[in-house]
Amino acid sequence: MGDIKAVITGVAGFVPEGIITNKDLEKMVETSDEWIHSRTGIKQRHIEKDPNKACSDLVVGAVQNLINKTGLDILDVEMIIVATVTADYPFPDTANIAASKLGAKNAFGYDINAACSGFLYALTTASKFIETGTYKKILVVGADQMSSILNYEDRTTCILFGDGAGAVLLEPSEGPHGIQDAILRADGAGAEFLHMKAGGSMSPATVDTVNARQHFVYQEGKVVFKAAIKGMSESISDLLAQNNLSKDDIDWMIPHQANKRIIYGVADFIGFPHEKVLVNIENYGNTTAGTIPLCLSDFEGQFKKGDKIILTAFGGGFTWGAILLEWNY
Ligand code: UT7
């Protein structure tokens, strides 16, 4: 133990075909393309329009794309961790449903619910199973079908989110690259500012909760905005200090894609050049646990072996953190 590093050996993304543009939203709520784009950076988001499709289908889409790219034999996969807040059902886990759909007969798995930081939590958890020598092939997937929990009459939230997923394959390596370190944080006191009011044990679903439209994302945007910049900036600074690195040693930053102003706010806070910050929010909006692996997938072609990459996220919980990794291929 100690000599094995967990390395990402493949990545792929998946989004459903349906698209809602800002112009489409102008017909649904009182908003404008100009407001949405200038305040968030978003132009469009992908939405699953088939009522028979759920989060597990996003997971399957991303993993299938990964299989097509890498030639992975699904029967070699030992574990599947799915980060999501939009599981197919309250139980069982979406990871198990997706494993069954994929034919991953030799894998067990579970979901991690850490909202927009879910992929960081899941990747860190999976890396420990690899570093200890317990497993050799783990799929880590961030997937959210946010359209299933959005109130399309609330312009403050429905314009922000989209559906999407990204998957990485994590394997052991004796080389120097791979996951180097992580800082994960949480503060449950933040729950009041970003949560779903009903549908859990605190407030089970009733006709009243449905009529009060309490099964949707509730967010106090301004509070979350400020906490997000602070949380991500501090976790990056702490991570750099803890690894005796300066911001100049980092090749790429991949932040959670919630708002372009938050993303560049974090970059400016730590003095990081904008051209090294990878952003694809324009095409997808905020896909919650899906944003970071979707970004890894979109920009994979730019990475060189040994590149130092920082992943960072902030979301409901509150949850936040940062991961330092070195690209392996
Ligand atoms: O991923 C999970 C974490 N989530 C986030 O990181 C999201 C954090 N928050 C945000 O990104 C931003 O706070 C929002 C994009 C949600 C809102 O941007 P803002 O610059 O904080 O706007 P605001 O809430 O201060 O609203 C400014 C104005 C208000 O009107 P008044 O009171 O100034 O007349 C809003 O009612 O904009 C209005 N407004 C809109 N106008 C057009 C709010 N939503 C919209 C809209 N279209 N969709």
Describe the protein's architecture and organization.
The chain is an alpha/beta fold and 329 residues long. It has two domains: 5-176, Peroxisomal Thiolase, Chain A, domain 1, CATH 3.40.47.10; 180-326, Thiolase/Chalcone synthase (Peroxisomal Thiolase, Chain A, domain 1), CATH 3.40.47.10. The chain has ten helices and 13 strands. A five-stranded mixed beta sheet has the order 1-7-6-4-5, sandwiched between helices. Strand 4, helix 4 (94-102) and strand 5 form a beta-alpha-beta unit. Helix 3 (55-70) crosses helix 4 (94-102) and helix 7 (221-242) runs parallel beside helix 8. The relative contact order is 0.20. Bound molecules: oxa(dethia)-CoA.
Read across the widest sheet, the strand sequence of neighbours is 1-7-6-4-5
Give the full name of the CATH homologous superfamily of the largest domain.
Answer: Thiolase/Chalcone synthase
Distance between the termini: 23 Å
Number of structural domains: 2
Number of strands: 13
The DSSP helix count reads 10
Which class of the largest domain in CATH terms? Alpha Beta
The low-confidence parts are none
Query: Can you tell me the CATH topology of the largest domain?
Result: Peroxisomal Thiolase, Chain A, domain 1
Strand-pairing-aware structural class: alpha/beta
Order of helices and strands: EEHHEHEHEHEEEEHEHEHHHEE
Bound molecules: oxa(dethia)-CoA
The helix content is 25-40%
Largest sheet: 5 strands, mixed
CATH architecture type of the largest domain: 3-Layer(aba) Sandwich
